[in-house]
Amino acid sequence: MLAYNAACTAGEFSALRPDGLSTRGVDPVKSNWARPIDRGPYMAYPIMAGICFTYGGIKTNRNAEVIDADGRPVPGLYAAGEATGLYYQVYTGATSVLRGAVFGKIAGENAAALPR
Predict the structure, then answer these.
(1) d(CA 113, CA 116)
(2) Please, which residues have CB within 8 angstroms of residue 62's CB and are 6 or more apart in sequence?
(3) What is the pLDDT at residue 108?
(4) Comparing C-alpha atoms, which of 86, 76, 104, 99 is closest to residue 68?
């Protein structure tokens, strides 16, 4: 922490715009909002990363088949759920679970019907 604090540059902090408060001499360099950690109280919270939903994703058709760059289904390749994306501008709450269930069932049925 001492090395980080020493690397912080002086200036006026602004949480509302890039303020140029960078670090010098530490890697990776922080380009904005670098402030010394020099007074408590300090608190820590355990966190875990997770994906709630994706924007964009693998393109599929109504049969849950993955579509290639030329618009053709990829034989034997199916996708459902978050891998397929869904939202491109506005998130409609609670729709990703239903979409994964519906297209998961379709993908499973189609994959199971393939000749072995």
Answers:
(1) 9
(2) 106
(3) 93
(4) 76
Task: Collect all residues with Cβ–Cβ distance below 8 Å to 39 and sequence separation of at least 6.
Answer: none
- The per-residue pLDDT for 17 is 94
pLDDT digits (tens, 9 = 90+) for 37-51: 988 898 888 988 776
Q: Which two tokens stand for residue 107?
A: 């993908």
With beta carbons less than 8 A apart as the criterion, state whether 61 and 42 touch: no
Kindly state the percentage of the chain with pLDDT values over 90: 48
Give phi and psi for 102, each to the nearest 5: -65, -55
SS3 64: coil
Look at residue 81 and tell me whether its pLDDT is greater than 70. Answer: yes
Strand (E) or helix (H) holding 78: strand 73-78
28: preceding bond cis by omega (within 30 degrees): yes
- For 75, the 3-state DSSP assignment is strand
